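Hi V.,

Quick status before I head out on leave. The structure for the redesign project is tokenized and pasted below; the design run finished overnight.
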């Protein structure tokens, strides 16, 4: 989120014409889906949530991953709002939990749409004003009857009916789609289907990510220094890319690929090659550092100056340095400037004084009507929020029939597809552990973090597994051994293991050793939750 730490780092690589890894392990499938529907992926302003009569956290762990938003939701519930959590895992003790079968969110959305349409409950004026391709969509939705959707999702029919009525009757509503919804092979398709619901009930958008703002990130990233198109690589396929042999050097910063990427063993194998040279710039000696030829010490946010833009709210904030950098550690910005100098590049042009770069960025960004001086004085200031009723699609409307998807060779209408489980009985979901930020700070919280797997109590009884047992998870990629906890909060047929945990602190293998590196059609995003395993006592 740091303009200097994250975005300005690209300046030297643009000047060099180096290859670039696409961020396909985060939210790209969902953003791609929303572009097909809305023409962009800006969403509802979170500050509208307090006025909502209906709030839905769809695949979102509010208490762990969105505490600021979850607290707003709790206050709204106290004032009478109705709250739904749609998630295979019960992550919040608030409102109604719909324990949906993983990866069936798109079927639920299409079923809700069909119920509203077939029972003549939908908002016809909203559809007339804002929908493109509604008639074609109706034909698709007809196939998602209440009975079929209940069978697919494993949700009670009455819960689906109640949710449909709440969507049309409780207004305004606020649907927040979590990134986990789109982390399977058909995740982008699921987000597309969910994003169509608001127009059917007289609203306009969902909330997903508000990073699509009128700000000049190209300037910060140094697009003006790029003399030729950079070769793009799918980050989720790093293991295969290294196996293929065309990449000989990597500069790793702001990420921990050995822990975060799919097909962990193949990634390790690639990074172990003698003909692959790797530099890592990091705060701690994590698992990726163990494969590096050179490790450069990085600073924490306490030791560096930056300005931040969040993907949730619409505020820009300042990050003032609290202490001087420790030892030889350098912030990304200063490290890359030093590297540019050593390589004979025009370092002062690439990396001018930090404040000067931010001032020029802010002056050239339509969403920002304040100065760096204002920001430093106030600490945080709100950027302009894009209008909710403007849709930069080819039709200028919400596209139920997406011309952009059709242009990209994808189905123009939403649909639903089932994963191939490969004959394995359990679906593996990986989520972030409470104490760590993705894979950051596990070493700091190592006494509190336990690499374990959560299993439904009824499934455990069938498998003869007791709480605290050591269990083996296995599939075609390999196996890992960890302790098990039994929980009624996990749906039957699901096992939950926390990702981001350092393998070297927990026995040498992380859960990503079981995650295939197949990618989905929407944005080439990783499909972490399309992973299937068996589990047995060790």
């Amino acid at each position: 989120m740091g303009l200097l730490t994250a975005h300005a780092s690209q300046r030297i690589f643009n000047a060099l014409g180096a290859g670039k890894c696409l961020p396909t392990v985060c939210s790209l499938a969902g953003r791609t889906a929303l572009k097909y529907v809305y023409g962009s992926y800006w969403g509802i302003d979170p500050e509208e949530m307090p006025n909502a009569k209906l709030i839905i956290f769809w695949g979102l762990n509010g208490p762990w991953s969105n505490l600021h938003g979850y607290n707003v939701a709790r206050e709204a519930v106290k004032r009478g709002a109705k709250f739904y959590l749609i998630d295979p895992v019960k992550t919040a003790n608030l409102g109604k939990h719909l324990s949906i079968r993983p990866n069936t969110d798109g079927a639920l959305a299409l079923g809700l749409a069909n119920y509203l349409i077939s029972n003549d409950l939908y908002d016809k004026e909203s559809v007339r004003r804002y929908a493109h391709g509604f008639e074609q969509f109706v034909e698709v939705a007809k196939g998602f009857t209440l009975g079929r959707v209940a069978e697919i999702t494993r949700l009670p029919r009455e819960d689906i009916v109640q949710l449909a009525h709440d969507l049309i009757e409780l207004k305004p509503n606020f649907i927040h789609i979590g990134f986990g919804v789109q982390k399977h092979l058909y995740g982008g398709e699921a987000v597309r289907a969910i994003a169509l619901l608001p127009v059917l009930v007289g609203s306009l958008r969902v909330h997903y990510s508000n990073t699509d703002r009128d700000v000049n990130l190209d300037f910060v990233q140094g697009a003006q220094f790029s003399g030729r198109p950079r070769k793009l690589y799918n980050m989720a396929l790093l293991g295969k890319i290294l196996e293929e042999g065309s990449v000989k050097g990597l500069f790793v910063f702001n990420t921990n690929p050995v822990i975060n990427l799919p097909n962990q063993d193949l990634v390790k194998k690639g990074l172990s090659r003698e003909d692959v040279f790797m530099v890592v710039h990091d705060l701690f000696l994590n698992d990726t550092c163990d494969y590096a030829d050179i490790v450069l010490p990085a600073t924490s946010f306490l030791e560096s100056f930056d300005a931040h833009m969040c993907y949730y709210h619409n505020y820009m904030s300042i990050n003032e340095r609290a202490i001087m950098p420790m030892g030889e550690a350098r912030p990304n910005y200063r490290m890359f400037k030093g590297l540019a100098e050593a390589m004979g590049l025009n370092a002062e042009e690439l990396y001018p004084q930090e404040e000067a770069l931010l001032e020029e960025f802010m002056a050239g960004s339509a969403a920002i009507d304040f100065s760096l001086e204002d920001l430093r004085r106030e600490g945080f200031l709100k950027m302009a929020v894009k209008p909710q009723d403007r849709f930069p699609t080819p039709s200028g409307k919400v596209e139920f029939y997406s011309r952009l998807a059709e242009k990209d060779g994808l189905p123009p209408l939403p649909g639903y597809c089932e994963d191939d489980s490969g004959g394995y009985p359990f679906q593996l979901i990986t989520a972030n552990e409470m104490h760590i930020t993705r894979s950051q700070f596990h070493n700091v919280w190592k006494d509190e973090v336990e690499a374990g797997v959560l299993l439904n109590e009824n499934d455990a009884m069938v498998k003869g597994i007791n709480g605290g047992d050591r269990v083996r998870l296995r599939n075609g990629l390999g196996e890992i051994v960890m302790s098990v906890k039994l929980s009624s909060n996990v749906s039957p047929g699901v096992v939950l293991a926390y990702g981001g945990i350092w393998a070297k602190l927990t026995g040498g293998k992380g859960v990503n050793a079981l995650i295939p590196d197949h990618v989905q059609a929407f944005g080439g995003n990783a499909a972490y939750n399309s992973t299937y395993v068996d589990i047995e006592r060790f």
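Above is the designed sequence. The chain has a mean pLDDT of 95.

G. will cover questions while I'm gone.

Best,
W.
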